[in-house]
Amino acid sequence: MRQELAAGLLQPQAGIAPKFFYDKLGSRLFEAITELPEYYPTRTEAAIFVEHLPAIRRSLGEDFTLIDLGCGSCGKAGRLFHAGVLPARYVAVDISVDFMRDSLQQLKRELPAIEMIGIGADFTHELELPDDLPSVRRMFFYPGSSIGNFSPSEAGRFLRRLAAQIDSSGGLLIGVDLIKDPALLNAAYDDALGVTAAFNRNLLRHVNARLDADFDIGDWRHVAFYHAAEARIEMYLEARRALSASWPDGAGRSRRHFAAGERIHTENSYKYSPEGFTALLAAAGFADIQAWTDPRSWFALFFARRAN
User: Based on the domain organization, do 250 and 153 belong to the same domain?
Assistant: First the structure.
C-alpha cells in the first residue's frame, strides 16, 4: 500500500484512492457524516430497507452467508439481523481492521447465535474468502453508495469478480446513489458543519502515518462538486499556498511540490439511473435483477443473482 500511495502522489494529477479514507478516525468521521442533515443516502437507504424488508428477506432466503463488503461499524448488517433477517453466518470485510474488530465484537455479543468472522482486506482489488466458507448461498452485501467510487468500467470488473465467487444460489444486495438535483449532491459532500471536510483532510493524516510523510493538514482545504457531464461528485484537497511534501523511499526521500491552488484528487462518486445500473449488473453476469427505490427516486437497493 505504501507503493500505491507514493505512486498516486507523484502522478501529474496527484491522487489518493478513497479506500485510504478509512483509518480508525476516518471510519468514525464517516459515521458522523451519515448523521448529517445534508447526507441523505444513509437515511434514504434505511427507509428503503424498512419499506421493502419482506421482499428483501424473501430474496435472501434462509441458511445463507452474508458477506458484508466495507462493513465499517457493521451497523447496517446489525439492523437487518435485529429486524429478523438472520444469516447462518456473517463475514465482515473492511480495510480498517481495528474499527471493524471493535464493531464485530459488539455485534457478536448482541447476536451470539450467528457465526461471525472478520476479514481485514482491501477487497476493491481482490477478495480471498476462507477456504471453509460454504460455496452455496453466498450473499454479498454492499450497502451505501461505495460502488460509485469505481468508474463504471471499474465497477463492471468489480461486479464480475463478485459474480465469479458465487453460484446461482447466491446473490448481491447493493446500494446505489441515483442521479438527482446537483444542489442536493453538492450539499451532501460539502456540509455546513465541515464534517466531510474533516474526513477529507484526515486522509493526509493517514498518509503521513502510512508513508512517514510530512503533509501539514492546515495547508489544505476541502473541495467537492458535482460534474454533471460525468454524473459524478469529484472531491479534492486543494493547496492553500505553494508547498512541498516528502516521504522516505529507497533512495532517500521523495518530494512533491504543489503550487497554490493545485489539487490532490481523493474521490469520485458516480451516480446512476436505475436503468443504467441494471444494465451494468446484467453485463457483469447477474440476472433476476430487482430494484427498490424511495418515493423521490434518490437512492436504490438492487438484488441480483448470478446468471446461469
Answer: no
Same domain, 146 and 58: yes
**Burial (CB count <10 Å: 0-12, 13-18, 19+), residue 126:** exposed
Cell numbers representing residue 134 in the block: 460454504
Residue whose C-alpha is closest to residue 139's, from 69, 54, 214? 69
Question: In the chain, how many domains are there?
Answer: 2
* Residues 6 or more apart in contact with residue 28 via CB below 8 angstroms: 99
**Residues near 169 by Cβ (< 8 Å), separated by ≥ 6?**
136, 137
Continuous segment of H or E residues that includes residue 274: helix 274-283
* DSSP single-letter state for residue 283: H
Domain match, 65 and 84 both = yes
Domain that holds residue 252: 2-35+182-270
Give yes or no: residues 69 and 114 share one domain: yes
Which amino acid is present at 119? Answer: I
Query: Based on the domain organization, do 59 and 148 belong to the same domain?
Result: yes
* Exposure string over 168-179, b if 16+ CB within 10 A, otherwise e: eebbbbbbbbbb
Same domain? 169 vs 89 = yes
C-alpha separations of 214 from 53, 72, 236 in Å: 48, 28, 18
Residues making up the chain, counted from first to last: 308
For residue range 176-224, what is the model confidence (pLDDT) as tens digits? Answer: 999 999 999 999 999 999 999 999 999 999 999 999 999 999 999 999 9
